Amino acid sequence: MDMSIAHSAGLRFGVTPARQFASLLAWRLARFGRSHAHLAFLTGFLLVANGQPLVTCAQGATPAAVADVPDDWFFDGANRPKPLKELEGKPAPDLDVGDWIGDATSIKDNRGKVIVVDFWATWCGPCMASIPKNIELVKGSKEKGLVFIGVHDSKSGWDKASGVVSDKGINYPVAKDSGESVKRFSLQFWPTYVVIDRAGTVRAAGLLPDKVHDVVDMLLAEPPPADLAGASDGGNPPAWYFGGAKRPGWLKAVEGKKLPSLDVAKDATWFGEIPKADELKGRILIVHFLSPTSESAMKQFAELEKLAPEFAPQGVSFIGICDHRANWTAATAALKERGGKIPVLHDAAGTPEIPLGAKAAELGLRIGATTLIVDRTGTVRAAGVRADRLKEALTTFLAEPLPSSEANVTVDPGATLVSRPPTPSIPASDTSALVH
């Protein structure tokens, strides 16, 4: 059965069969013309008992949604359901869900990303027919900063959900609604797609399935809101980090600081080609603190080596900073053996509290194997990023507008690093979340 009409219309409750049929017929005529064979499908899809709809398609009422999302991207266009329209422009409600298939997540934990919530059910034909589009959307946009969440009907069909996820190869988490989420999101029909921007604001509710991708692309192109760009905690998704939301406070405190000057004097100790100030200006930097004796640090560094060729042409530079205490001869030998191309600086002496090195001490870094993302202004925006989430994070920061000034990290060709006051000691227990 061709479900394209169902894709576009969705399932609907509480409207007279005659009105629903008229609405669907008008939609089909406008799209395909009077002679189209799919008109016959409408009568078969409308199920009625005692004059009431059991499962139907459509909905109506209210003016345009969000100014930047065209009316014709929504089911029923400008006449779409008022409760859905009233969600737009407001903070997204929290989901209230129970069982999960896949990794549990939430809307608030993904602030800074674009989120699609698909309200669906295994008994819903249009929902099932739309799954391949969902899968393709996730494949193409997850690494750009998309989070996709399927919320299943609480009343029936959940017993088949696991099989559907497996059979169709669903690549996003699916949860069973408690019954509250559909109320909070004013659900009017199945499937209902709700798209939430990086600031956590609902931007579109009740989209046609084939328009979800367009809205996602539009929102991914938008920069993060100002409070995320400048917040000391970075406002980034916890999933980006080792330790997630439980990473230690001293690591969170690194975000918002300026990266210390990079000493590129001729007598500085570097492995590889010494970076030039002009080459780093206005670029995003990935800075990895490492020790050649740390297997974890070197594995992460190897992942950065793989990403560098892809992101260097997009305006990203990669730099390593080696633990001052490391045997530099052994370190360079290890880097050469791995075929390393990322330049690595042997850090100057640190402090008694932070012996990793001078730059680690200036930032307050207490352990090695730590990756930082530094924006175009030289500000640390993410500290302790997982290598497997770095591509996603980079895509987010590359989407930000260029700063009015191109000043970036300070590259001082002859500077002697100035010792800073020691960072207050942090209990050893505060590093427990960073087991990586």
The proportion of residues in beta strands is 15-25%
Count of helical stretches? 15
User: Within the largest sheet, what's the order of strands?
Assistant: 4-7-6-5-8-9
Largest sheet: 6 strands, mixed
CATH fold-level label of the largest domain: Glutaredoxin
- How would you name the CATH homologous superfamily of the largest domain? Glutaredoxin
Radius of gyration: 26 Å
Task: Give an overview of the whole structure.
With 436 residues, the chain is an alpha/beta fold. The protein has 3 domains: 1-58, no CATH class; 80-220, Glutaredoxin (3-Layer(aba) Sandwich), CATH 3.40.30; 226-431, 3-Layer(aba) Sandwich (Glutaredoxin). It has 15 helices and 17 strands. The chain has helices at residues 4-9, 17-32, 39-45, 82-85, 125-141, 161-168, 181-184, 212-220, 226-230, 249-252, 277-280, 295-311, 328-337, 358-363, 390-398; strands at 11-12, 47-49, 52-57, 97-101, 114-120, 146-152, 174-177, 192-196, 202-205, 262-263, 270-271, 284-290, 316-322, 344-346, 370-374, 380-383, 411-412. The strands form 4 sheets. The chain has a 6-stranded mixed β-sheet with strand order 4-7-6-5-8-9. Strands 11-14-13-12-15-16 form a 6-stranded mixed β-sheet, covered by helices on one side. It has a 3-stranded antiparallel β-sheet with strand order 1-3-2. Strand 13 (316-322), helix 13 (328-337) and strand 14 form a beta-alpha-beta unit.
Task: Give a quick set of tags describing it.
436 residues; alpha/beta; Glutaredoxin; 6-stranded mixed beta sheet; 15 helices; 17% strand
Give a nutshell description of this structure.
The protein is built from 15 helices and 17 strands. It has 436 residues and is of the alpha/beta class.
